[in-house]
Amino acid sequence: MKINQQPIEKILISACFLGERVRYNGEVKPLVSVLLEKWQKQGRLLSVCPEVMSGLPVPRPPAEIDPITKKVITIESIDVTEQFDKGAELALRLCRRHNIRLALLKESSPSCGSKTIYDGTFSQQKIIGEGVTTKLLREHGIKVFSESSIIELAAQIDKLSLFVHTK
After folding, report:
1. Nearest to residue 137, comparing CAs of 160, 110, 103, 107?
2. Cβ neighbours, 10 Å, residue 111
3. Partner residues linked to 13 by β-bridges
4. Distance between CA 78 and CA 91 in Å, rounded?
5. From 53, 115, 123, 155, which residue has the greatest number of CB atoms within 10 Å?
6. What span, in angstroms and rounded, lies between the C-alpha atoms of 145 and 159?
7. Which residues contact 1 (CB under 8 A, 6 or more apart)?
8. What would the DSSP string read from start to end of the chain?
């Protein structure tokens, strides 16, 4: 007897959450979560760092989105918008290739922020906003969550799994 197994719902995840050395300052700050461990064992996670994928080095100067021009500028006043746009496009391509509809990305990052980003003054002040990659993914129907909304992501996965099994 052959069991018809449905494909597992994949999650695009910020590489820094998995302990990869991709953060702008080279620090490793993994997200410790029972859910992440479970999803990793299930083979759900596809790691991404749009900034590194676009060719930016580690470490690299901090960058923030200018709220007026919407350009991504480093603390050294260098425009890196093109690299951030390229990284976002590469992340979207990965999602399309792997039929990914859900993402867990780093809050406040100029690439990955989903609710907040830094205000563009390099003063550690946050404002409501979204990063370049998050914006592009959402424009293409991908739901983006952050470390502060991981429970909502888990509920979304359960909902999608239930839908697949009751079809």
Report:
1. 103
2. 31
3. 47, 104
4. 23
5. 53
6. 15
7. none
8. ----PPPPPPEEEEGGGGT-S-STT----PPP-HHHHHHHHTT-EEEE-HHHHTT--SS---EEE-TTT--EEETTS-B-HHHHHHHHHHHHHHHHHTT--EEE--TB-TTT-SSEEE-SSSSS-EEE---HHHHHHHHTT-EEE-GGGHHHHHHHHHHHHHHHHT-
Amino acid at 84: F
DSSP strand pairing (102-104 vs 143-145): parallel
Tens-binned pLDDT, residue by residue, of the chain (167 aa): 445 556 789 999 999 999 999 999 999 989 999 999 999 999 999 999 999 999 999 999 999 999 999 999 999 999 999 999 999 999 999 999 999 999 999 999 999 999 999 999 999 999 999 999 999 999 999 999 999 999 999 999 988 765 544 44
Q: Which residue type sits at 117?
A: I
